[in-house]
Automatic annotation (TrEMBL):
Listed name of the protein: Response regulator
Organism of this sequence: Saccharothrix lopnurensis
Entry-linked SUPFAM superfamilies: C-terminal effector domain of the bipartite response regulators, CheY-like
SMART domains for this protein: HTH_LUXR, REC
Domain Response regulatory: start-end pairs: 2-122
Database matches in CDD domains: LuxR_C_like, REC_NarL-like
Amino acid sequence: MRVVIAEDSVLLRVGVQRLLADEGIETVAAVEDGDALLAAVEEHRPDLALVDVRMPPTFTDEGLRAAIEARKRVPDLPVLVLSQYVEERYAVELLAGGSTGVGYLLKERVADVAEFVAAVRRVAEGGTSIDHEVMMQLMVRARRNPVDALTQREREVLGLMAQGLSNGAIAASLVVSDGAVEKHVGNIFAKLGLEPSTSEHRRVRAVLAFLNLA
């Protein structure tokens, strides 16, 4: 079996590589960011891509987005994602992108070597390996309106956005800084799964989500 590892932590990257080598699994490339992952999978066409969720430059969800793109560039590429957290928005897209050869494990599972190696082999062979905690969170997500994930302050900001107020006007209304409002707006876009679009403005789409709640 040939794998590509994408992990920004040198210690974890080397550790996983050695762990796999002990099991007779060859690492054909070990990289530290999403762009390098895409280049590696296109070059090597591995049996599996093992990907960390949070990588440079922002350490948010670059790895998961790169994994989704990798599956587009190399159809049916088995991908096993490792994360300390459940990134619901992109996890849904990754899992929905194909019913075979996909896994999402929390990093704590790597401590159980036998379980981890079994997951690697299962995903590489076209199976799935989804952490129980990941599944529980996604099941809850499926039953709720995305707006429900917003904090009270984020709901207040979104309500003022629905009234047509600019960030500056919202800041004045709530007696907070412009920077605080920008942060809240960014969180709102993220929680509602609103990606940049050339055809629709995210602010408008967020407001539509708010109005649909009423």
